[in-house]
Amino acid sequence: MEELNSKLNAYKIPIGFFVVGVVLLIGGLFSSNLIGKPEPKIEFPKESIVSQSSLDEIKIDVSGAVNSPGVFTISENSRIEDAISLAGGFTDKANKEFISKKLNLSQKVTDGLKIYIPFEGEEAGEIRAVGGIGEIAGVSAQGKVGINSADQVSLEALPGIGPVTAKKIIENRPYAKVEELLSKKSVSKAVFTKIKELVDLN
Fold it and tell me: Are 165 and 186 in contact (CB under 8 A)?
């Protein structure tokens, strides 16, 4: 028994160092998993993120004496100048007097705005915003509908004109005189008789 105790006393210090080393090793491994471990990156699905740009876009319609007429998507903070640029700019046949006197290039665009640039010899009302929806005057001060500037809805309000005929009138613009509605086959003779006193070249 005494011999066993003497052997234990002889290895007491090495065993102590061994136990301390094991404790430190286990503690180091445990702390390395908890301390300094980077936080998991939270990724949101792309479907849950709404693009801000899509919320700020509106649609406008630019036609008449521009190089590339059409319906365009544009920022809601844009101006008429930007809309004209999207449509390729003015053509050489644009009504320069209208552009200089009645077209406010710095005016902000609104959703659904219709911009019609008249050709030389045509007249058109000023672009304005009504009830949050932009429109260009298609009805003259005399109450007549302008065949060069009125939109489809205004044309369809005329007697005998439906969606198809209204579209033909718009596609065959510009008109130098009201009688060109007949020569360009935009309307039938019967319809022309009904509307000739109700329209002008506006």
Answer: yes
Each residue of 2-42: pLDDT tens digit? Answer: 565 565 555 556 666 666 666 666 666 555 554 445 555 55
Q: Could you read off the pLDDT of 187-198 as tens digits, one per residue? A: 999 999 999 888
N-term to C-term CA, the chain = 125
CA max distance for the chain? 136
Residues 121, 104: Cα–Cα separation, whole Å:
20
Asked whether 147 and 175 are in contact (CB, 8 A), the reply is yes
Q: Do residues 92 and 169 lie in contact, with contact meaning Cβ atoms separated by under 8 Å? A: no
Fold match, 53-137 / 138-202:
no
Residue 189 has φ and ψ, to the nearest 5°, of -65, -40
- Is residue 119 within 8 Å of 99, Cβ to Cβ? no
Is residue 130 left, alpha or beta, with left meaning phi > 0 and alpha meaning psi from -120 to 50? beta
CATH number of the domain located at residue range(s) 138-202 in this protein: 1.10.150.320
Is 140:126 a contact under the CB 8 Å cutoff? no
Instruction: For domain 53-137, say whether CATH 3.30.420 is its number.
Output: no
Structure tokens at 13: 């210090």
For residue 4, the Cα-to-chain-centroid distance in whole angstroms is 92
The per-residue pLDDT for range 94-112, each reduced to its tens digit, is 988 888 877 888 888 888 7
Q: What is the pTM of this model?
A: 0.41
Q: Where are the domains of the chain?
A: 2-34, 53-137, 138-202
